[in-house]
Design a protein that fits this description.
The chain is an alpha+beta fold. The chain has three domains: 217 residues, Multidrug efflux transporter AcrB transmembrane domain (Multidrug efflux transporter AcrB transmembrane fold, Up-down Bundle), CATH 1.20.1640; 64 residues, Alpha-Beta Plaits (2-Layer Sandwich), CATH 3.30.70.3400; 228 residues, no CATH class. It is built from 18 helices and 14 strands. The longest helix is centred in the C-terminal third of the chain and has 33 residues. It starts with 9 loop residues before the first helix and ends with a helix. About 12% of the residues have low confidence.
Length: 587
């Protein structure tokens, strides 16, 4: 059997149904996923659906006005962008306004409260030792005396096991005296870390007689704040620990794994958020720990973290825990069983994926160079964007109608294949955009709609290139079926080059721009890729099948492939020269 000629595929000619079945299965699967996710419409951007606009004002530390500079403001914008956008295209806009304000635009459909919390979480991150803790308005946990000595044990993979409910499992103290003694001893140990503690852990032991009057006064004030603190009250939570410096002990609130508010007495900050070099959520299959949060520290941070964990490892719950405090709120309180001196640590527990990623996000971006306060929060209406969208859709519909009219008048029967391909491309675009909303937080804004409208011309151009190549082959005198197969390799190269240029332009535009223009670039790039998929898996196979139908194969006058209308040459035929007569041969 002779092999097919170069540029022609036997399978492509004989089994175009496979390609059509493949793209049909893809459409059905994507559509099923769309309905299964419950997101059957694309997510709209703030200019189309409305949303919330937040103005944040930078507030420097007293005497540090110079901290408000372009570098720090740009860093703050970058961190807030990462917090609210993650790796996706969520269409939340974060940008500076003037020298000390940041504007955050959050589109409708995004959890605006969560986004506000993300951009508003601007205080520095600290690691503080836990001195005492209890369920808010509940009984205090027993607090044995701490040890100031450091443990020298370590292991290759440092690990801090997250405490799932630090107070619910502890035995309540029988009196406030034991709690006060523990806090007093802990504060003294923090103030003299080199001293070896020999205090008894008995609940009946008395407070250290060597405590200074200033320490006693500070401890009494701290205990009074702790006793009065009701973390279930939002105003009380906001006021907890206000004005406390990193080197001060303080009170704080946080939620445990049972979603209960818990209050804490925390020692002076031992590690700063800027000492965390990297944090990420990973699914640990090695130890079957499930979702965990890994941290890597700077060289300076590794030393400080190793020192404090060495001290905490000598204690019992809750004083073997360190609190990760952000904006005065405890976001996690893992316990420590050994000194973590390797420069990295892993927090494990009953984490879900979302919880682990949220904690890693806070650890990574919790140390802003400035603090910010909300100056104003306003609601943005979508009236103007809705009018513009309406006008844009009308313009797009008119453009699409003109394209279809042109195809029908010029290509006649071939226009059916082009229109069917446009419908397949439109279906894929709609379904994928609907799925990208909940997955990468893609939001359809006005520039993105413009990108989709421009894509109509790009897609139609691919069909025209293919059809014109087929008509050129027919003009050369070939019948339709070989004309389709000979035209395809030449048209394919032109289509790929054209789409590559369009995709490259979209990619560059997406990289070098920000905000709404990225929506245009993203949509243009997506529709360009889909154009290649549709032309290869739908338009070409469908054309191969139609070439076998009499209407097209015989060149009907309405098929768009009539040889007479195209000025075709006479058919190319191979003829044999007649054999010479016997007499001539003899002669």
């Amino acid at each position: 059997m002779a092999a097919p000629k170069k540029g022609r595929s036997a399978s492509a000619q004989s089994k175009p149904g496979r390609s059509l079945a493949l793209i049909l299965i893809a459409i059905v699967a994507l559509t099923g996923g769309m309905f299964a996710s419950g997101h059957t419409t694309p997510r709209l951007g703030i200019d189309l659906a409305g949303g919330t606009s937040i103005t944040l004002e930078a507030v420097p530390e007293p005497g540090q006005e110079s901290a408000i500079n372009k570098t720090n403001m740009d860093t703050a914008v970058d961190i807030m962008n990462r917090r609210v956008n993650g790796l996706g295209v969520s269409e939340t806009e974060v940008q500076t306004q003037g020298t000390r304000n940041i504007i955050v635009n959050i589109p409708k459909g995004t959890n605006s409260e969560e986004a506000r919390a993300q951009v508003g979480t601007t205080a520095k991150l600290y690691f503080r030792p836990v001195l005492a803790t209890e369920i808010s308005a509940g009984a205090a946990t027993a607090s044995p005396s701490p040890s100031a000595s450091s443990s020298s044990s370590s292991k290759a993979t440092d690990k801090a096991t997250s405490s799932s409910s630090p107070s619910s499992s502890a035995t309540p103290s029988s009196s406030a005296t034991s709690q006060g003694r523990a806090v007093t001893d802990a504060l003294k140990a923090d103030s003299t870390p080199s001293a070896s503690s020999s205090a008894s852990s008995s609940a009946t032991a008395s407070a250290s007689p060597s405590a200074s009057s200033s320490t006693d006064a500070a401890t009494a004030k701290l205990e009074a704040q702790y006793t009065a603190l009701n973390c279930a009250d939002e105003k009380a939570r906001a006021a907890a620990g206000q004005g406390a410096k990193p080197e001060d002990a303080t009170v704080a609130c946080g939620k445990n794994s049972a979603n209960q508010w818990q209050k804490y007495i925390l020692g002076p900050a031992q590690v700063d958020g800027t000492d965390v070099k990297k944090a990420q959520a990973i699914y640990n299959t090695t130890t079957a720990a499930g979702w965990t949060v890994t941290m890597e520290f700077t060289s300076k941070g590794a030393k400080k973290f190793g020192d404090i964990t060495g001290q905490l490892a000598q204690q019992t719950s809750p004083q073997n825990q360190f609190a990760i405090v952000l904006d005065g709120e405890v976001v996690s309180d893992p316990s420590v069983s050994e000194a973590l001196t390797g420069g990295s640590a892993e927090i494990s527990g009953n984490f879900g994926q979302e919880e682990a990623q949220s904690l890693a996000n806070m650890l990574s971006y919790g140390a802003l160079p400035l603090t910010f306060k909300e100056q104003s929060v306003t609601t943005v209406t979508a009236a103007l964007g809705g009018d513009q969208l309406h006008a844009g859709l009308i313009a797009g519909a008119i453009g699409l109608a003109l394209v279809i009219i042109y195809l029908v008048l010029y290509y006649r029967g071939l226009s059916l294949i082009a229109i069917a391909s446009l419908l397949v491309s439109a279906a894929l675009t709609y379904v994928i955009m609907s799925l990208l909303g909940p997955t990468i937080h893609f939001a359809l804004n006005l520039p993105a709609v413009c990108g989709a409208i421009v894509a109509i011309g790009i897609t139609a151009d691919s069909f025209i290139v293919f059809f014109e190549r087929i008509r050129d082959e027919i003009r050369e005198g070939r019948t339709l079926r070989p004309a389709v197969e000979r035209a395809w390799p030449r048209a394919r190269r032109t289509i790929l080059v054209s789409d590559f240029v369009s995709f490259l332009a979209a990619a560059v535009l997406f990289i070098v721009t920000v905000g709404k223009v990225q929506g245009f670039a993203f949509t243009l790039g997506l529709t360009t890729l889909l154009d290649v998929v549709v032309v290869f898996l739908f338009t070409k196979p469908l054309m191969t099948i139609m070439a076998r139908r009499k209407f097209f194969a015989d060149g009907h006058s309405w098929s768009g492939l009539d040889p007479k209308r195209l000025g075709a040459k006479p058919p190319l035929r191979r003829t044999r020269r007649p054999s010479a007569p016997a007499e001539t041969k003899e002669a």
